[in-house]
Amino acid sequence: MTRFALTVEFDGAPFFGLQRQADGPSVQQCIEEAAHAVTGETVTLHSAGRTDSGVHALAMRCHLDIEKPFEPFRLLQALNAKLRPDPVAIIGCEIKPDDWHARFSCIGRSYEYRIRNRRAPLTLEKGRAWHIARPLDADAMHEAAQALVGNHDFTTFRSAHCQSASPVKTLDRLDVSREGDAIIIRAAARSFLHHQVRSMVGCLSLVGQGTWGIDQLAHALEAKDRAALGLNAPPEGLYFVKATYPQED
Amino acid sequence: MTRFALTVEFDGAPFFGLQRQADGPSVQQCIEEAAHAVTGETVTLHSAGRTDSGVHALAMRCHLDIEKPFEPFRLLQALNAKLRPDPVAIIGCEIKPDDWHARFSCIGRSYEYRIRNRRAPLTLEKGRAWHIARPLDADAMHEAAQALVGNHDFTTFRSAHCQSASPVKTLDRLDVSREGDAIIIRAAARSFLHHQVRSMVGCLSLVGQGTWGIDQLAHALEAKDRAALGLNAPPEGLYFVKATYPQED
């Protein structure tokens, strides 16, 4: 048995999320079926994060165990050949020790959320960003976001379906910057609650439009109440960008 | 009669090009039909460049004449409302003097060509870049490209369907740079021949793979013969990025 770590890029649009679902296609199902076609083995994919329906990944980290010997590069090529034409690509593949776990060994997760802030509808970036026509003040969004950085009870920003044992998490980074008519929000933490990034971004968009004052985000956090949530941002702007492991980088 | 200059962004994938075609949908047809729906007038769209089927634009410049008075911002909003759900967006609209012409007043055109250079197939950038799996040497490509800069007979890089009176053009810029696993080729000239950018990029890809030596691009240029063309790059990597006019910028 060999443990292979995969780095996976995918377009989330056609999927019901990364994790296997009873009611629709998932990235996990695609990769497990490709692995079965390549190896003849029934494998289970484990991943650093679970992404919602429509959320994208630039570099999700996953692992699977395979009995047959494979050179990592050959496995990568064979999986990609079987994954076509689904918009899922294995962009890295390496052998890891048996105690390395894509989810449990992961010590950091980073997301980017992409907003296009302009009057005109999106063309090339349709399904790749959240389109907001009203002008956003990115500086005010960044200032407000800093109230969420640190160790807090994030109940306000947690989905009712969240399976985490505790709503207390440490948010390491929540940066908002404008790049032309794009606004990029970068979030990093050891782990996130279900819907946490989209919930934080939704509230930041209200601050950016002036609907919420800069202090209102801190008040929503302190409320520890899902009813204090302003807005949950749509999935198409969200990208899983990095999983960090000890002794990497 | 008022002349309106439009700045247009579009995803070229579903279109048979910018210009009206007898056999399929075009960007011109979409905008003319939207303008008719808004104004009740039959208008003709003129554009800085003609793009092939599948080629994208980030900021194509066009103009049309309208009899009814319109505030530019209202016209922009009304056109965008009628253009939905086609992937065409009016991102700028301004009134110009009657002698301003999107095509004939244009003194500079810029294109970008995007290559993703990696083993894995594309997911999020599918249809937005040319996927080349074999490693490319961007420095060699840039060096070879400089032989094309200047005033030359570009017959080798000209489509058989090109309607330009002369194959002699002045290429102001042809820069190749690597950004991670992306290779970006930036081309600027007063005007280009039909297929010129894609023909130049196709040959540069052969230099990048080592199939052609650095000097071979100069030899192909000197041949002044379409048969000396190495390869015509596919349309999906090409973006029209800028049209320049006197007294702008």
What's the helix and strand layout?
The structure is a homodimer of 249-residue chains.
Chain A (H helix, E strand, L loop, with lengths): L1 E9 L16 H13 L6 E2 L8 E11 L5 H12 L4 E9 L11 E10 L12 E3 L5 H8 L4 E4 L14 E12 L2 E8 L6 H13 L7 H8 L14 E7 L5
CATH class of the largest domain in chain A: Alpha Beta
Averaged pLDDT of chain A, please? 96
User: How many beta strands in the DSSP annotation of chain A?
Assistant: 10
Gyration radius from CA atoms of chain A, angstroms: 19 Å
For the biggest sheet of chain A, the summary is: 10 strands, mixed
Number of helices of chain A: 5
Low confidence ranges of chain A: none
CATH homologous superfamily grouping of the largest domain in chain A: Pseudouridine synthase I, catalytic domain, C-terminal subdomain
Broad shape of chain A: globular
Number of domains of chain A: 2
Largest contact between chains: A-B, 24 and 24 residues
Termini distance of chain A? Answer: 26 Å
Share of β-strand residues of chain A:
25-35%
Give the name of the CATH architecture of the largest domain in chain A.
2-Layer Sandwich
Instruction: Please identify the structural class of chain A as seen in this structure.
Output: alpha+beta
Helix content of chain A: 10-25%
Binding site for substrate (chains A, B): 111
Subunit structure (chains A, B): Homodimer.
Catalytic activity (chains A, B): uridine(38/39/40) in tRNA = pseudouridine(38/39/40) in tRNA
Keywords (chains A, B): Isomerase, tRNA processing
